[in-house]
Design goal:
Strands 5-6-3-10-13-8 form a 6-stranded antiparallel β-sheet. Helices cover about 15% and strands about 45% of the residues. It has 4 helices and 19 strands.
């Protein structure tokens, strides 16, 4: 298959050109347009428990599979928030961990489920689960989206990388993380910075240039209240 990302980084759209019989799986609601493909909706893989784990991770229980017809076809996909689209090639045995709501699509041989991050997720203020993408047979590709632009940051041995929890998109499975804060209690309460993720090891972390939770906080004061106008 051939893929192209258009209109990045602000309003990115992924267009996939499929050879006859080729398939790509996508999050429900991601399709913008299609031509010459057959779409089927099914469980996201891993049986009912795998689907439930995906739901706990902020994703849908179902997934759409687009398969090209005899003459080939194409499908365009886009995330629900304005931002960028990135991709990561996975070999068997590799994992990519993606924040809730950042999964967009994957090749047919990629499977997804959710990885419980323990009480670290509760204290981080983010989801208790990350979506885990992995290849079952041969190499595959997973496509993820962000709110804003995406930047890949290296994690070097012996050097800790600190990332605000609201700006995390994904990370490779060769890094480890803990939840902490920047500065002391005064910084946490009045410095405008919340909890952070501290990465160690040797791998990569992908971050987004905007924070959706911060946007929501800015909008809430302008929303009408139930008693307004009475």
């Amino acid at each position: 298959m051939q893929t192209v990302v258009e209109f990045d980084p602000s309003y990115a759209m992924l267009t996939v050109v499929l050879e006859p019989g080729e398939s790509i799986k996508a999050e429900p609601g991601a399709m913008v347009a299609q031509q010459g493909v057959d779409m089927k909706t099914g469980s996201s893989g891993g049986g009912i428990f795998g689907g439930l784990r995906r739901m706990m991770g902020g994703e849908s229980f179902f997934i759409n599979t687009f398969t090209a017809e005899r003459s080939g076809g194409q499908v365009s996909l886009a995330p629900s928030t304005p931002g960028d689209i990135g991709s990561f090639d996975l070999s068997p045995g590799q994992n990519l961990f993606i924040q809730a709501s950042s999964f967009l699509a994957c090749t047919d041989n990629i499977q997804t489920d959710s990885q419980f991050q323990g009480f670290r997720g509760l204290f981080s203020g983010e989801s208790l689960f990350f979506l885990r993408a992995f290849a079952e047979k041969g190499r595959g590709t997973v496509y993820y989206n962000s709110y804003g632009a995406i930047k890949r940051l290296p994690v070097e041995a012996g050097k800790e990388l600190v990332v605000d929890t609201g700006h995390l998109v994904a990370f490779s499975d060769d890094v480890q993380y803990s939840i902490g804060k920047v500065g002391g209690l005064r910084s946490l309460l009045g410095g405008g910075e919340g909890l952070v993720m501290k990465f160690n090891g040797q791998g990569y972390v992908w971050v987004q240039s905007r924070n959706l939770a911060s946007l929501a906080e800015k909008i809430v004061p302008f929303l009408p209240t139930p008693n307004q106008g009475q």
